Amino acid sequence: MSHRLLEKYRLRRATETGLSPNPWGGRLAVALVFPNTYHQGMSNLGLQTVYGMLNSREDTLCERFFLPDKEDLDEHRRNGFPLVSVETQRPMADFDLIAFSISFENDFLNLPTLFELGELPLWREERNERHPLVLCGGVCAFLNPEPLAEIMDLFAVGEAEEILPGFLETLLVDGKRERIELLDQLSALPGIYEPSGYEVVYAEDGCLQSMLPQGERPERVKRQWLQQLDAGQSRTCVATPDTEFGGMRLIEVSRGCPRACRFCAAGFIYRPFREHSTAHLRAEVLSEEEVGRVGLVAAAVSDYGALAEIGQTVLEHAGQISVSSVRIDAITAEQVRVLVESGHKTLALAPEAGSQRMRDVINKGIDESQVLSAAKLIAEGGIPNLKLYFMIGLPTESEADVLAIVDLTVKIRQVWEAVGKQKGRLGRLQLSVNPFVPKPWTPLQWAPMEQRSQLDKKYRLLQKRIRPLPNVELNFESLRHAEIQGLLARGDRRVGHILPFLAEGASLKAACRQAEIDPAFYLYRERGEDELLPWEILEQGVSREHLRQEYQQALQASIGQMCHPGCCRCGMDC
User: Fold this and answer.
1) 14 or 297, greater pLDDT
2) Of 48, 150, 365, 567, which is least surrounded by CB within 10 A?
3) DSSP for 377-420?
């Protein structure tokens, strides 16, 4: 909303409510919205980083909004209360800009509820000068923005450190322009995608034919990324003890992943892989008077060469260190020692597949002996519980590949049990088995998702073989949630119309029927080699030719290479 119209709205609302019409002293007011509950949202490092960046400026102010839990949501609806901010209890519509931070596709389902409670139209075409502008940031904004293209006014394509300063300056200087003129100004900025500025054309077979820019908009919006990671620092800026991971201070170690696993978007959309220097990270760890419990965050924390050194620094200052997971071929005895002394009771490893053939398909870059060695190292180091991540439904997977998960689990359990008996303590193995969901900007983006009936059959097979194993716990991801994730991850802007129906509790099948969407078209169809993909309105830096070559190698179970500094063979300008 332009400042002129916003002031009129605030004045009217102040007359109705008795509140001050300009509570922020002329600063640009940003509503930062996380589409999940406070308990889950405040441990999100991206949200914390943006919140800290906005409130460190003298000319902006940021307040937080979260999805109410079920009990509070019922009260909101029963009494007609709008959703209000954590800081000053003002509604979303009072702010100049509404910025969503979205990391997971399944959180899209909460958007209709948040717009309803914010007393704002869900669809951007229904909003006018009276309403704030709506910006979407986070991983989903530069993975595939299209399913939300008819909801959001703008998308931040890339990393906040590079995009936010210029975006805020434009709002502060040009915020008094009319809405259409302001959108034109913002769409000219690097890394800003304005979906209303593109004409979308579909072919007779339903495939995307073209996305034509209108006016001066770019043909593709280039992702922005921070070249020197030490120039910024993603870290906890608001302590929230009553939330998930609230008892620790989270600090980013690196961004991206050099491993180039073919199913994993993080290894491609955050290229090139970047790390914080040891000196910088040490200074961040010691920046608080009391070090406390420090959570190191990265796609592959154990790849960080100075992990044990940083961990020892934390211990020497009476603190504790925590990591989310470790890389099978990178974990060391010294790293395990530091984690044990910090009180770690569980570590996670991700073999992803049971057979070597399937690990080669996804370019995992490890073999069975490395998996067993890592399990033994962790057990001997004194960590009692081990969590293992596997996927099913990968391209070319057979029943033998699924049964290989059982065989590998049995071998890991034998190692675990042998060490446990020596130590007089036998912990538990936890298996988390998830359906493969093809993601944009990965070599497997062309692959179909496996049909639910086949995935269910594989679930039952694993359950039959693994449930009898003592001290082994087996957990499966919901197939419904996986299908919704797959549809929203690879859909075009037509797919967004299922969200209101899903938010009301409809099944995926019913929601697609009401929105006149064929889910099989998006989920179970291999994409054509020359087909225009919805997310290709963006430019990530990795070439389509490289991804396609990696896909062909995956189908042949041929292993690829890691991402090396200065290589640039993927087309990335690094």
Assistant:
1) 297
2) 567
3) HHHHHT--EEEEEEEES-TT--HHHHHHHHHHHHHHHHHHHHHH
